[in-house]
Design goal:
It is a single chain. It is built from ten helices and 17 strands. By secondary structure, it is α+β, with helices and mostly antiparallel strands. A five-stranded antiparallel β-sheet has the order 6-7-12-10-11. It binds flavin-adenine dinucleotide. Flavin-adenine dinucleotide binds near residues 70, 120, 123, 209 and 210. Flavin-adenine dinucleotide binds next to strand 3, helix 3, strand 8, strand 12 and strand 13.
Length: about 300
């Protein structure tokens, strides 16, 4: 297992922001990951699992503890039952293309989502009217508190819009199985290409970003539309700016810090609250230390979550 001290994290986040981790480990297998977490737990050492770092704001001060990056655990199998099984670190675009070539449908929505299987399960990643929950069969999950690995089925996961029952501070997704119906490969590839082209037209290319910053507050109210109407596209804090292409994307113009990004998120929330009386809730997770004031940006629920 690759195991380094004082590792810079910015290159492992799609936003290209993040200071050093005390230690960075790249387990090569599920067994290595399970052993590592058990060891860290036994020694009472803090840890954080990441995949593609594509839905994550990492503190510019870095992370005091061990970061476990799953991206070398990438095995994929098609099982006799027709299920597609993938280790936590397999990338969604690769998985989607692999499945399409094999005539397995259902992952066309995921071709432009630069995350891993583990991150996609935790986030219930979705796009183009579908999401992980639509094809999810089961996942092998390590509960770090008990050290037990369990197979969790769809009914255990309580999938909702961009969330599920698992807590990434406690549960580690080791692998997942997806239920994917057969279809003609050319047809699947056509739908996949269509989704890819739509993204090229509607999302910023060039500057580092972490996808949508905020969740849609209501099913019929897209955060991007509300932000656009609230006139956020001219907002900027230091080297962090709202994308001119998509008002729900923050881009790193070069050398932006996590403090600048949070200050910008706060301004975006304020603009939408002033105009629409709606609270926007970040989709991103955070890693590292932030002040209570900064974390107040996260301490809100969408209108739908409030009713639950
Ligand atoms: C250009 C761009 C476009 C995007 N488009 C979309 C989109 O259309 N739809 C969408 O839903 N998202 C989108 N995203 C966001 C992101 O790609 C997804 O949320 C993705 O599923 C995150 O996966 P990741 O591996 O990068 O997770 P990370 O960012 O590495 O981590 C996110 C969270 O998951 C946890 N985690 C990661 N792996 C594991 C694991 N194995 N076990 C337990 N916890 C784990 C982390 O601890 C963290 O809390 C986009 C991002 C970008 C940059």
């Amino acid at each position: 297992m690759e195991d380094v001290q004082n590792a810079p994290l910015a290159r492992f986040s799609t936003l290209k922001i993040g200071g050093d981790a005390d230690r960075l480990c790249h387990p090569q297998s599920v067994d290595e990951l399970v052993t590592l977490v058990a060891e860290l737990k036994k020694n009472n050492q803090p840890w954080y699992v990441i995949g593609g770092g594509s839905n994550l704001l990492i503190a510019s001060d870095g992370y005091r503890g061990t970061v476990i990056r799953t991206t070398q655990m990438t095995n994929i199998h098609i099982l006799e039952s027709g299920l597609l099984e993938a280790e936590a670190g397999a990338r969604l675009p690769h998985l989607a293309k692999h499945a399409a070539q094999k005539g397995l449908a259902g992952l066309e929505f995921a071709v432009g989502i630069p995350g891993t299987v583990g991150g996609a399960v935790i986030m219930n990643a979705g796009a183009h009217g579908s999401s992980i929950s639509a094809i999810f069969d089961s996942a092998l999950v390590l509960d770090s508190q008990t050290g037990i690995v369990t197979e969790m089925r769809s009914e255990d996961m309580a999938f909702q819009y961009r969330r599920c029952a698992l807590d990434p501070a406690r549960h580690v997704v080791l692998s997942a199985k997806f239920n994917m119906p057969s279809d003609i490969p050319e047809e699947i590839e056509k739908r996949t290409r269509h989704n890819e082209e739509y993204r090229f037209k509607t999302q910023p290319l060039g500057f580092p970003n972490a996808g949508s910053t905020f969740k849609n507050p209501l099913p019929d109210k897209a955060a991007g539309f509300l932000l656009d109407q609230a006139g956020v596209k001219d907002l900027k804090q230091g080297n962090a700016a709202v994308s001119s292409v998509h008002a729900n994307f923050i881009v790193n113009l070069g050398g932006a810090t996590s403090d600048e990004v949070i200050a910008l998120m706060k301004q975006m929330q304020e603009r939408v609250r002033d105009k629409f009386k709606l609270d926007l809730v970040p989709e991103w997770k955070t890693m590292g230390k932030f002040t209570d004031e900064q974390m107040s940006v996260w301490h809100k629920k969408t209108a739908v979550e409030n009713k639950q």
